[in-house]
From TrEMBL:
It comes from the Bacteria. This is YchJ-like middle NTF2-like domain-containing protein. Residues 31-134 form the YchJ-like middle NTF2-like domain. InterPro entries: NTF2-like_dom_sf, YchJ-like_M.
């Protein structure tokens, strides 16, 4: 039997022990970083329903029809490859309950580098951590190596 594949979130764990339980609805990510990692893995594993489920109720896409958003997420995931994720920084929830994660996502579309750095905001909705919003910089917009950034030095 072949070895179990590594998790696309780059945690170092096998997929079945890392993000798969979240994708299957068997567990909720315990913190904002694990949610962010599971969302990256959901793009790589083409799990658009999970991506919808993990949007915060106040995210703008939640005001749109679920089937439309899921179809768009599926198309995006199918058109891209997601080979690497690097988490550079994280911040525990602030007084309003918003946690932040800064990450570098390697993403390719038909061989073209679409990699980016994002500072994401997450908030718990009473059931689990959810993606609220994010500020994104494309790799070509950066003047420093992406892995050198922190939440304090992110240029937005």
């Amino acid at each position: 039997m072949p070895p179990a594949p590594p998790c696309p979130c780059c945690s170092g764990l096998r997929y079945r022990e890392c993000c798969a339980p979240f994708h299957r609805g068997e567990a909720e990510p315990p913190d904002a970083e694990r949610l962010m990692r599971s969302r990256y893995a959901a793009f790589a594993q083409r799990e658009p329903t999970y991506l919808w489920k993990t949007l915060h109720p106040s995210h703008p896409d939640r005001a749109r029809p679920e089937d439309v958003v899921v179809r768009e997420l599926r198309a995006f995931a199918q058109a891209h490859q997601f080979p690497k994720l690097v988490v550079m920084d994280r911040q525990a929830p602030d007084a309003q309950g918003t946690a932040q994660v800064l990450f570098f996502a390697k993403v390719f579309e038909k061989g073209k580098d679409r990699s980016f750095v994002e500072r994401s905001d997450f908030r718990h909705d009473g059931t689990g951590w959810r993606y609220l919003s994010g500020d994104t910089l494309m790799l070509r917009e950066l003047t420093v190596p992406p892995e050198s950034l922190t939440l304090a030095t992110f240029p937005r």
